[in-house]
Amino acid sequence: MAFLTVAERTIAYRDSGEAALPAVLLAHPLGMSQDVWEGVIAALRGRFRCVTWDLPGHGASSGLTEAVSPRALAEDALALADALGLARFHFVGTSVGGVVGQQLLTQCPERLGDVVLTNTGAIIGTPDNWHTRASRVRQEGLAAMADEIVPRWFSEAFAQGDAAAYTGWKIQLARTDGESYARLCEMLADTDFSGQLRGVVGPVRLLGGREDLSTPPDTLKTLASQFGDARLEVLENIAHVPSVEVPEAIAKRLRAWLGDEHVVENGVSYAAGLETRKQVLGDEHVARASENATTLDAPFQNMITRMAWGELWGNDDLSRTERSMITLAVLAALGRDGELELHLKTAQRIGLSEAQLRQALMHVAIYAGVPAANHAFSMAKKLGWGNSL
């Protein structure tokens, strides 16, 4: 957990730290916390740099003392992205997190890659219901209302099948700052993105749950009509927070959806390959390679950018740490020292662990020979791998 101060408020956030990977910001629903993404992030590890944060008054973030707007919440997300050096990022948001996504789409589409909005709407609920809830929260407190609110988040099957998690989310709601929750309710009462999303540039996907009482499928269908080509999928037997109920299924969809516009009819585009190459090797290395290119090897640089980095490293079937292990083993076995040194440095950039490197080189020893592995171990140690016993 880390903290960022924005406009005299403290934002609690988590960053998976995989700086060489495409970044995705994930925003949670009202009354919950960034913990809703834990299962999804675990399944995305090695493929995306995942950044989550607690909304005001939720989790470990400080609370609100004045009215709030979707723009203010979007500014929090942008401040977090700026602090982490993320000029562009994918975005995934559920419920009020989806409202943040809609604001970002209207405010700064140039900062966004792919956007996935789940269990949300251009309008969520009715103003009267939100004002009533805000008033009750201030009078009764969230702990007293937990038995009423939490059942709307999950399907009956989940509530009965994972009682510990279900109870845990009741406790989380009770710990949420009531005034912040009430102010967010009042924000939702005034929020209407109808007509503001037409002409939005960039891929948008919508996801809902058949058993969602708060943002039922019809709400998602209405939102889909706001976009030119947004695709909607409704999950059966799932309610308002699919990232908690079926995290692996959500992660599988995100792996397929985020960045899939780069795949063209004849393969991955040069631009997509170049982006992947920069993420893995670093901007400086790629810039040097481009600056040193001549008429002799420029076509070669183009080819490896499309094929090695676009088609191979850009493919989602293996994580980048897995591809790094394979690459290191092959280069060590073949004795390609120049490339081996480069990829040993790259392995550090993308977060390969010492144990993973050790196992890759031990495979080399068994299947390609001890001298080759011994030489690779020696190179790795010179580059800073390993600690003294």
UniProtKB/TrEMBL annotation:
The UniProt record lists the keyword Hydrolase: yes
Keywords: Hydrolase
SUPFAM superfamilies xref list: AhpD-like, alpha/beta-Hydrolases
Carboxymuconolactone decarboxylase-like domain: residues covered: 300-381
GO molecular function terms attached to this record: hydrolase activity; peroxiredoxin activity
InterPro entries according to UniProt: 4CMD/NDH-1_regulator, AB_hydrolase_1, AB_hydrolase_fold, AhpD-like, CMD-like
Pfam families found in the cross-reference section: Abhydrolase_6, CMD
Domain AB hydrolase-1 residue range list: 24-252
UniProt keyword Ribonucleoprotein present: no
Entry-linked PANTHER family: 4-CARBOXYMUCONOLACTONE DECARBOXYLASE FAMILY PROTEIN, CARBOXYMUCONOLACTONE DECARBOXYLASE-LIKE DOMAIN-CONTAINING PROTEIN
Protein name: Alpha/beta fold hydrolase
Organism: Chromohalobacter moromii
Taxonomic classification: Bacteria, Pseudomonadati, Pseudomonadota, Gammaproteobacteria, Oceanospirillales
